[in-house]
Amino acid sequence: MNYASVQDRQRLLVSQLSAFDADHFIVIVKPNAALRKKGKTDLTINHIPRTSGFKSTGYALEDFMQPRLWKCLSKYNSDGYSITVKCKSSKYHYVALYNVSHTELKRLVEGEGAAPCFVSFLSENDRLEKFYSVVLRFQATDHKKDTIYAKKVASSYQAKFGLKKIDDLEACIPLAGFWDKKSGTLVKPSRALSRDCGACATRLATFVKGGLADLQDEPEAPVIDRSGNDDFYFESCFQMMIYNAEKAGDVIDEDDIEKRLINKLIKEHYHIDQIKGFFVQREMPKEDVCDF
After folding, report:
1. How crowded is the C-beta side of 36, counted as CA atoms within 13 Å?
2. Strands, E, within the chain: which ranges?
3. Given a cut of 70, is residue 292 above it in pLDDT?
4. DSSP label at residue 192
């Protein structure tokens, strides 16, 4: 593991995030395998004040330079957490690919015509084959179902390259200047260019022309139950979280949504035993109801 000064690491980070050109970034720290066995889970970092004045969840690029946030992320990194970001942008969508082999990268660029805005070396296997983290950036459109089509674009690449696993449209990207705990490598840009991927835009236009998403009826947003029945309220919040995830083009992970709901309800001062009781009841088989 090579030594790098704080200044060098910050330059790596600025190079990467400048290439993404997002409005702001959600910071998620991910525990390594050993920590996960101890029950540690992904955490969203949002408690450090922002020097940029940005008020929502996430941080602007300049916020990463403030000592308090940098020290917080460095501490998590040294404790066994990978530091990742999700790009939030009104202008762009992003395709995040992880563990892309050199052969796949060549096929992605030369065969598929893709133009990555970011490439970072991750690891090398016993056969000296190199693996990379790769990000493609493409323009958002004003189509009413732009997110659905953009998700199809991302999925079409994720299924063929790297982990070959469909991920969220806003997937986590290893943050430059910190060590990726899966590969043990300091994330350093091999390529960082503020450019759009024309192949992604072409693929998006093809999907729009095919009209597949237009055949899907837009699901109605669930209504939060305010009747006073806690179980009805819990269930409506759960369904709202699923709806929001689907609308954002995210992969639906009910375990993750359950954790988010538990955190939400605890913050609203519901007792953990009551919340657990709701989930136990929810998993029980429903009895048939006789209508006569």
Report:
1. 10
2. 24-31, 43-45, 81-88, 92-101, 118-124, 130-139, 173-174, 179-180, 185-186, 189-192
3. no
4. E
